[in-house]
Every structure is written in structure tokens, then in C-alpha cells.
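assembly run, all chains below
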Amino acid sequence: MKYVDEFRDPVKAQTLLKEIRQLVEQIDIVKKRPLQIMEVCGGHTHSIFRYGLQEMLPKEVEFVHGPGCPVCVLPMGRVDDCVALAEMPHVIFTTFGDAMRVPGSKKSLLQAKAEGADVRMVYSPLDSLKLAKENPDKEVIFFGLGFETTMPSTALTVLQAEKEGITNFSLFCNHITIIPTIKAILDSPQLKIDGFLGPGHVSMVIGTSPYNFIADHYHKPLVVAGFEPLDVLHSMWMLLKQLAEGRHEVENQYARIVPDQGNSASLGAVEKVFELREFFEWRGLGSIDHSGVRIRKEFAEFDAEVKFPVPNLKIADPKSCQCGEVLKGVIKPKDCKVFGTQCSPETPLGALMVSTEGACAAYYNYGRVQIEPREKTASV
Amino acid sequence: MRDLIEDVFLGAFHNPLLAPLEDQASIDLAKFTSKGDRLAFTTDSFVVSPLFFPGGNIGDLAINGTVNDLAVSGAKPLYLSCGMVLEEGLSVERLREVVTSMRVAADKAEVLIVTGDTKVVERGAADKLFINTAGVGAIPKGINISASNLCIGDKIIVNGFLGDHGCAILLARNELALETDIETDCQPLNDLISTILAVCPEIRSMRDASRGGIATVLNEFAESSDVGIVIDENALPLRETVKGACEILGLDPLYLANEGKLVAVVPADKSDEIISAMREHPAGRDASIIGEVVESPKHTVVMNTAFGGGRIVDVLVGEQLPRIC
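ok done. output:
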């Protein structure tokens, strides 16, 4: 398969790993402690575990799993807001799949659905708009979730709704932005990150220049990385080369998808429909300035928070939850007191165990047991 | 109602055991005791949506699913019951199509539908058509197939391409806007299983890999037999189209349902002979050895990835959901 098979070549992997081992020996930091490389994006966490990459890398290189999973950072209060909207009569509440299982303070959207709320999974916000046109007597609400990756499709859907004069469609906006998150990580005294694997699909929209402050001001290297296993290893190689040579720059490994200047049509649509909120609540990370977006006043007729009463309560996480520490990369999922016991995929306490990109779910589903990698020689 | 039964069902399923239309079918016990020393007895319900999907419909699914549940015990499937719950408004023509498919499937599997029931419920009380079946068969003396029989070193075999049915259904629901030519693999496996047993009567365990895919079956085997299982990603038979659809949607083919695939665990020294015999059979052309039974980690299924690493293939919780970003 094009763009898949070439990037899963085990022979190339061994070549990269050999060079990675040589580079690691040239980095001073490893004489004192293992390198801490943060993969920001949940999709990378998933790849690392799905392909067993942590075990393939030298033990001097440790991944720190970052908070780039939009489902994982959903505060309980926001889930309660979703449930409240979904339980209103005449509402069809539409959402991406993962979000349905995140527990609120009383129930998840999936449980609300079982109790009679009309909650439907969609693959794209345009599916919601289609539902609105097919059900003129219902209010169709789309739960807009995700970083900059999914913002453009949501924005374009709102613009499409306006163009077609659809009056029974609205958006419950929970889109968040990646840069303030990375800054919060960099400013956190608990962490010592040596380099970053940058989020590939967010960068497809925003380009690479927004990360320049990480190199210029914080003097850390960042490589924008693709999601296939060779992409991750190649990006790691590029990062380690920077560290070995004493450089700290922003580099783009995922150039086949990510234009350095970003996608102007997407950015234009996003700018037209959304504006930054002053602050936004993140599960486990607290409130981060300018980290969320809301719908501009001009599009208020499509804003579910304006159209409908939403509880908007701040709900504290359960006491036993250590989601915040895992999200910040301070502890690994297996170090959480309730990992695999009270908190498991069947009975999740937090969203990290629910989302396919959550560090805890990745650890639980793929990595509970240490598996030694095999040397792969040239295939026949 | 009697008209519906005579017109649609009796017309399609006609056989001497059904014809009297008594409240029960009367079957000479010798039909069983001549073929084995134990009765195999199974039941299943079919609620698939949509009713018609590429390559099949709820009808042949019901027959083949029941036949296969019997056949994987080593039993010769013999007789089926068929209970139908029809939603008011279901077109008789659609029903006739389903029932005809059931007749064709039953003939191919050499089973008889000998008793049935029909209920009509008001609109909204059922999703068009639900089918419940029960099936009985005879297990030959000396055949003891069980999930708790696995031994260290045994080989794991599947009879062909994985994930076709699950993929076909997901895409037929039309919510995901992908166009492919993927069809269900729905087929009876009893004849293939006879071939396998002729070569190796002492096969350890066998299940059909329907809901939850082969990952679920392998985890059940590991748990029941108190062993571990290792599979090789390179050895899994997967169509390019299924792989492609799964990549785009973020689904794992190991968990997709199959309706014409079995997972068998066999003694290592017989595995090559079994594979050769299977590949001679239409239902086993792409049979492959995909892994083996190991001592540890116990109760765990591990996959050696094509990339060179390893990962757990865990039990699925809930449904697989397409990726967000």
C-alpha cells in the first residue's frame, strides 16, 4: 500500500536504529540520565505502542507521553454539558466516536444513549449537517472536538450551514490549540524535556513556524513527525542528531504532508469562524490561557452554548485519578495508583483510558507486557 | 398468518419433517446415534443491519452461522429451527428473498430446517427482521475439541482472508462514505472441517471467528488453556482492500467479524499436512499457519509486528470506533 508499506520497512528500521545507537553515545546528557523525548500527540503514543518502538530504541531514550489527545483532556464538566444537551427533547447530538465513552460525573454519552438520548456517531461534521437537513423538526448539535487538525472541517461546516440557510444545526465547540499546551509543559517545573516530536496533523494545518519559540526561546529541538513507525524512528534520528551536534531547531520530517507555511485555506476558514477564548479548562492541567476557541458573535446562531442552556460546571476529577500527572508526562500510566485496577478500559475513571490515543489505553491495550524486539534481516 | 407460513416458508423449506406443521418436529434418535455419541446443540440470534449486504443477507448468515457453531465442535450439523420476528411493514418480497437464501444455504450445508415460528410486531418494535435459530448435530465418538486442550508448541491455523465480513457490514451501513468491492465471507465450514478431521482427528480446539474477530477467539483459547499465544503479523492473510479500509478508518482487522473463517489449534507435527489438505478445499484455499502456543506470558496473545517489535493483542472492550484525527 502506497504511503504505508514503504514506511513500515523493517530493514530500514534496523539501519535507523543502528545510527540512533551511535548518535546516543555522542550526547552528553545520557551520561547522567536517560533522554526525555516528549511526543506531544496522542497519535504518536498510539504508534509507539502499536509497533513496539519503545523497546526497539536504546534504553537511554525514554518517551514522555504528552497531552496531545483532545479526548483525554476533556474535563468532566464538559462531558456533563454534552449529556445535558443530548438529553434535551428534539435534539440529535452528534459526536466523534471516542468521546462517547468518556465518563462524566454521572454518565457518559454512551450511557445517556442507552437511556434514550439520541446520540449518534459521525465521521465528519458534514454528516451532522446532512442529518440536520434530513430532520428539520430536530435540533442537530455537533460536538466539535480536537486540536487544529479538526478545526478547519468544523469551520467549513459552519460556513456551509450559513450559506445554505440551515437553522436547526449548531456546534458545541470544544476545539483547543496546541501551542499554549506545549508552552505549559515547557514552563512546568516538574518536567525536564530534552526534545519534542511535533504533532504531524496539527502541523499540516498550522505549518512549522508556530513552534519556533521552542527552539529560539527554550532552546529545545522539535521535529514535526509522521505517524508510521519509520516516520517516528526517522524523526527520533533527526532529534538525536540535533542534540549530538548541539543544535536546537524546528525541523520537518513529515514534509510529504506538512507544508512549512501551513494550509492557508484551512487557516482562513478557522480565522473567519473562531476566536480565542481568554482561558479554557483542561482535564488534569487546569486552566490554560488562550488555549481554546469559541465561535465568533457573527455566527452565534450556530453556537450551541448561546442557543441552549448548558450547566457549565467545573467538576473535580475523582480523588484517585492521576490523569493530570500522566498528561504532563510526570508519571507513566503504569505508575498511576489505579492503572489496571479501578481504572481499566471496561471501567475507565478518566479519558486517557478511553480514547484510542490516550497514553493509558495505549499502555493497557498494547504494552502491559514487556516484549523484546527481534532482529529483522533482509526479507526474501 | 397461515397463508404467510405456507406461501413463504413452507414453499422454501419443504421437507418431510417440516411438512406436518405440528408444534414440534419428530426425529428418529437413530439419526443421531448412527453418527456420534453426543448431541451438539447451539442457538443464535441474528439482528444484523442492513439486512442485505455485499455478498449476502441475514438469511444465509443465520444458516451458516448456526451450522458453523455446530461444526467447530466436530459435529455433523443435522437439523435447524428458525424463529422469525417481523416488523410490521416488512415487504413480503424482501422476506421471500431472505428465505430463499436460507434454503440455498441449508442445501449447501446439507442441513434441514425442521421447525419454526413467526411473529409480527408493530412498527418500531423490531428493526425490520430478527431471526433466531437453534441447531443440533451429532459429535462422532473420539472427537474431543475444546478450548482447554491447547499444548505448548501447537500451531494456530486460519482458513483464509480475515476481516472481510466485518468490513463489508461497516461499509454497507453507508455512514463512512467509502466505496470498495469487499464482500462478506459468509459460508458453511462443515465440509472443510470434515476434511481437517480426516487428516487429524486429534485437533485441539476450533472456533469460528465471528463477533470480535480472531483476536477474541485467541484470547479465549489462551485463557481456557492457561497458556500464551504468539502470532506473526506477516503470516496473517488479509486482502489489500480490507487493509486499506482499516488504515483509513483506524480499525484493527484482528477484531473484525468473520462469517466463514475458523481458528484451529493443531499439533505441530500435523500442521503442514492439515494446511495442504485445507488448501485443496474451496473454503480453505488461503489457509495459513499464523502462530503458535507458548508457555508465557500466560493468558496473553502477543503479535510479532511486521516492523520488528511486539505488542499485545488484547480483548476488545466495547466496539471499535473510527479514529478522530
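DSSP finds nine helices and 13 strands in chain B.

The first helix of chain B runs from residue 2 to 13.

not gonna interpret more than that til we talk
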